[in-house]
Design goal:
The chain has 15 helices and six strands. It is of the alpha/beta class. Strands 4-3-6-5 form a four-stranded mixed sheet. Strands 1-2 form a two-stranded parallel sheet. Helix 7 (123-131) links the parallel strand 1 and strand 2. Helix 9 packs parallel to helix 14 (263-275). The longest helix has 21 residues, at 57-77. The relative contact order is 0.16.
């Protein structure tokens, strides 16, 4: 690793300085490559074939570095159900797999497949695609200067974090339930609240296990640094109503997590909540809180950059 890479540590809150200082934004060559890998997503319709990406050896090396770190972190911090699902997940350790190939392997396991996005996805499109059995995923790779942390989703996050989930019928069914709930609502306010519950469960969820907490959320599973800091978080009891009223960090390590007593508890809680979720519930939830929601979260569900491409 070069001296330049050693001089770019992640700060205590999980960021590399400000967003503008992150090498993914400051490195013009990286931005050009990232945008080239994102460009095929323009005009891509949900369910269309995902084109193959020609990855470089440097990008494969970043994948191997992250996969090695995550293998150790998962053995220590991931819950038993995740470790079991990972044994069936079609995710190689030595190279970046093609989304099309991983999706084809997922279909017989859970019926899910990947569909391509270049970055940000509007909440309605994202969630309603889950109802159809499609998960939006990107093809670009995080900046090699900080391989163990990324402030936006990349192919490692999508394939490792969500790919493990979508290899498991238990987790895949929860994705479908979120999709079914989204189909029933029409207001952006409702989608924002649904987004938050999704975030605090399938992205950043933890479960009581082994006398402590273990991770099952995909965002946690794709960040070895964040996994190692679970005991520093404010861990609260699982409560969809509270989660729906809690803003999350779209970039940086989470300070607040919600713990399920078990995965059965998680499934029962989400099943009941999502079955009754509708626009009226969302309206009543936001009334009296002082919060006015005019649009989805500052960055939507895919917590990606403001546009499909990073500009100067």
């Amino acid at each position: 690793m070069s001296d330049a890479r050693r001089r770019t540590p992640v700060t205590p809150d999980g960021r590399l300085g400000t967003a503008a200082e992150h090498p993914g934004r400051r490195d013009a060559r990286y931005r050009e490559r990232r945008n080239a890998l994102a460009r095929p997503a323009r005009g891509h319709r949900v369910g269309d074939p995902v084109p193959y990406a020609a990855y470089t050896e440097s990008e494969h090396a970043t994948w191997r570095t992250v996969r090695a770190a995550l293998a150790d972190a998962h053995s220590r911090y991931a819950c038993a159900a995740v470790l079991e699902a990972a044994t069936d997940a079609p995710i190689p350790a030595d190279r970046i797999p093609q989304l099309a190939d991983v999706g084809a392997a997922l279909r017989p396991l859970t019926g899910f497949d990947f569909t391509l996005t270049g970055g940000l996805v509007e909440d309605g499109r994202f969630f309603r695609s889950l109802d159809l059995g499609y998960f939006h995923a990107v093809q670009y790779v995080r900046h090699p200067a900080v391989p163990l942390y990324t402030p936006e989703p990349d192919v490692i996050h999508d394939v490792v974090g969500h790919g493990i989930h979508l290899s498991s019928p238990r987790f895949a069914e929860l994705y479908r339930l979120f999709g079914q709930a989204a189909v029933r609502v029409r207001t952006p306010e409702a989608l924002t609240l649904l987004n938050r519950v999704y975030w605090f469960t399938l992205e950043a969820g933890v479960v009581a296990e082994g006398g402590g907490v273990k991770a099952y959320g995909a965002a946690l599973l794709s960040s070895s640094g964040e996994l190692a800091r679970l005991d520093e978080c404010d861990v609260r009891e699982l409560d969809p109503g509270v989660m729906a009223r809690t803003r999350y960090l779209v970039s940086g390590y989470q300070r607040v997590l919600f713990r399920a007593r078990s995965l059965d508890h998680l499934t029962e809680t989400l099943t009941g909540f999502l079955a009754g979720f509708d626009d009226e519930w969302a309206r009543e939830t936001t009334m009296g809180t002082g919060e006015v929601i005019h649009r989805p979260e500052v960055l939507p569900t895919r917590f990606a950059p403001d546009t499909a491409e990073w500009g100067p």
